[in-house]
Design goal:
five-stranded antiparallel beta sheet; mainly beta; six-stranded mixed beta sheet; 2 domains
Length: about 675
């Protein structure tokens, strides 16, 4: 995400350039073969490297003195049980260098529509790497007569993963890649996937582009990836939701300028109509950032769109009453409020939520800090230096807003306790109680923990803030969904490494559930969704677009997502880049407790007496993606699918989750 006024001009330069990989200088040697017969390859720079290359020129190698290319021929045969590691060692501590990796088949043609690459810091791990030619680029961010040594190794079996434990086995999961597109090819975009399920069990999953998948049966079957909704503009931030009356909305933050492009489907995602008239369209002047939809739960055709204004940075909320065709009502929600001066120096925002009882009430949260701290935080800070949450609330359907501070994480030993890693993610239960999830880092420490603030309906301060994760020391990018009052499901990325900036960290998609969030001391049940292998092996950068400045790993972008079907069972989406450049994954809860027991209380008894939820089926992917793999739940918990309940996922090591990536600049 792009947040701070101080670096607006730099961000604009990044956004204005389309990046395509081109050949750099050859390393010494220029190529080598990595196989089980030759399990280690070493190379160095060809000549001293000098210069300070901006992110775009590092990717395109437009300044030859700042990059070297090596062609690594990988031949692991037919064995998926292999583990490749790339390690970059700069010649001196003053030299700032990073690995830029292009997998086999990644276009090296300036006219290519979908360049694929990843920026990996100084260490790369790949399980079951693709056979073929990998272009390994070493690029300078700041070099003066610098050198480096690169080592690539290949092992028969990956080392034992250092990931979180499975925890509670009563929660079962079926996990699979999202389907390919209609041509049978993997989706070209991935990163920060979102998911929304309405009360009619209609589903939309989205990532950049927008690339969307849809389902009309609660996610049992999923459509092929649709990448043709918006084909006229480079992909940026995207979002997707479905209204109570089955209107599908999808948008794209056009990278050619600050343009919010909104599309609507009234036929379950089969055809899409462009709307969004009235939204800002500032071609050539990047201004809008991280937009969120909020459908009205009662008023047909009404949908809100909120976005962050880089030039303010104000927070804007627009309203449409005609299914997104025109947005005629707008408000700068912090302007003139008591938090405006501080929040105007930098903020991150949550999705707005419309009250289910009185739909004139709309609430939205934002993270900020005092103006001086925000204005003086350097662009190369490893995360957003934000410590407070503001609540913006409207009682007249978005026309006017009041602002209050609901939480201040404070400082520890003079250092900010930061809370914006990266978004304050909000959700609302069926009674209108709000829950805010965030990743908090105590000043001066490296551990991060998922925290939940509880805001009872009508309140303007948190009644409590509690820690969600247990026994894990690096926890980032939370998402949550609420069901019946006090019942919340939460997902996030977790590692036992103790530091999200550790390049050797290995991560899992995690899940937690509370059914007593409104009690004085909520409790949580925790489970690992993503199986026994890591879904990401590297650091996770928390600086948004400024990861291009800090050299942090931003392959996963900025969040993952979770929703629940009409019976209250979780469905999660996340990014897996452990074996290739990136794939959107999908996990369905197959056993364990629902957070909407009131919605499907009339369960049909199975032959063994256990209840079976209506319309439940394990189903297939509905597309070209591989079949899910799971094992029976042996814990004795009631299964989502009755007597044939499936439990904790066993993912096959080295499944080739091949996708091409289109990354934002």
């Amino acid at each position: 995400m792009r947040r701070f006024v101080l670096i607006l001009s730099a961000v604009a330069a990044l956004l204005a350039v389309a990046v395509f990989p081109a050949s750099g200088r050859a390393a010494t040697p220029a190529e080598g073969t990595l196989s089980f017969a030759s399990p280690s390859v070493t190379w160095t720079n060809s000549t001293p490297m000098s210069g300070s290359a901006p992110a775009v020129t590092r990717l395109s190698c437009e300044v030859p003195t700042t990059c070297d290319d090596f062609i690594l021929h990988v031949d692991r045969g037919s064995s998926d049980l292999s583990y490749m590691t790339l390690t970059l060692t700069p010649s001196g501590p003053q030299d700032a260098e990073e690995i830029i990796l292009y997998e086999p088949g990644c276009a090296n043609d300036p006219t290519a529509a979908n360049p694929c690459y990843e920026v990996d810091g100084t260490t790369v791990h790949k399980t079951g790497p693709k056979n073929g030619d990998w272009r390994v680029r070493v690029a300078c961010t700041q070099c003066a007569a610098a050198g480096y040594t690169m080592v690539a190794t290949l092992e028969h079996l990956p080392p034992t993963p250092h990931i979180p434990a499975p925890f509670d086995q009563s929660f079962g999961w079926t996990v699979k890649p999202m389907p390919n597109n209609a041509s049978g090819n993997p989706a070209s975009s991935f990163g920060e996937p979102g998911i929304w399920i309405n009360q009619n069990n209609k589903v939309i999953v989205n990532t950049f582009g927008p690339t969307i998948w849809t389902s009309t049966d609660g996610g049992r079957t999923l459509s092929p990836a649709n990448e043709s909704i918006d084909v006229g503009c480079p992909s940026g931030d995207a979002d997707g939701v479905i209204s109570f009356d089955d209107a599908y909305y999808a948008d794209n933050l056009c990278l050619a300028g600050g343009t919010n492009l909104s599309y609507t489907s009234r036929d379950d995602g089969n055809t899409w109509q462009q709307g969004g008239q009235g939204l800002p369209a500032l071609a050539g002047a990047p201004n809008s950032d991280r937009q969120w939809y909020a459908p009205d739960p009662k008023q047909a055709g009404r949908v809100y769109m909120a976005y962050h204004d880089l030039q303010g940075p104000d927070i804007n909320v627009w309203r449409s009453d005609d299914y997104g065709q025109t947005f005629t009502q707008s408000a700068q929600i912090t302007l003139g409020g008591p938090t405006f001066v501080d929040a105007s120096q930098g903020n991150t925002t949550s999705r707005p939520w419309v009250d289910p009882i009185d739909n004139n009430i709309v609430s939205m949260f934002y993270a900020y800090n005092d103006a001086v701290t925000s204005a003086t935080t350097p662009p190369n800070a490893p995360e957003f230096n934000l410590r407070k949450f503001g609540l913006a609330r409207s009682t007249d359907a978005g026309m006017t807003w009041t602002n209050t501070m609901v939480y201040d994480a404070g400082t520890t030993d003079g250092a900010t306790n930061t809370v914006a890693h990266e978004f304050p993610q909000a959700t609302m239960d069926s009674a209108g109680n709000l829950y805010v999830l965030f990743s908090e880092k105590i000043g001066g420490q490296t551990n991060t923990h998922i925290m939940m603030g509880v805001l009872p309906r009508g309140a303007t301060t948190f009644s409590k803030v509690v820690q969600v994760d247990q026994g894990i020391t690096a926890n980032v990018f939370p998402w949550a969904v609420a069901g019946d009052p006090g019942m919340v499901d939460i997902t996030w990325y977790a590692s036992p490494s103790g530091n999200n900036d550790d390049p050797k960290s290995q991560w899992s998609e995690m899940f937690a559930q509370t059914v007593n969030a409104l009690s004085p001391a909520p409790t949580f049940t925790q489970s690992r969704i993503s199986g026994p292998q890591p879904m990401h092996s590297a650091d996770i950068c928390l600086a948004g677009t400024l990861c291009l400045v800090t050299n942090g790993n931003r392959n996963l972008a900025d969040f993952q997502g979770v929703a629940v079907d009409k019976c209250g069972y979780a469905e999660a989406v996340w990014t897996d880049d452990n074996s290739s450049s990136g794939t959107t994954m999908f996990g369905r809860q197959t056993s364990g407790r629902s957070i909407r027991p009131s919605a499907c209380a009339a369960a049909v008894p199975a032959s063994n007496g256990n209840p079976v939820q209506p319309n439940a089926s394990s189903g297939g992917s509905g597309g070209a993606a591989g079949a899910a793999i799971s094992t029976p739940n042996t814990s004795g918990a009631v299964g989502r699918y009755g007597p044939s309940a499936v439990g904790v996922v066993l993912m096959v090591l080295g499944v080739r989750l091949m996708a091409r990536k289109r990354r934002r600049q």
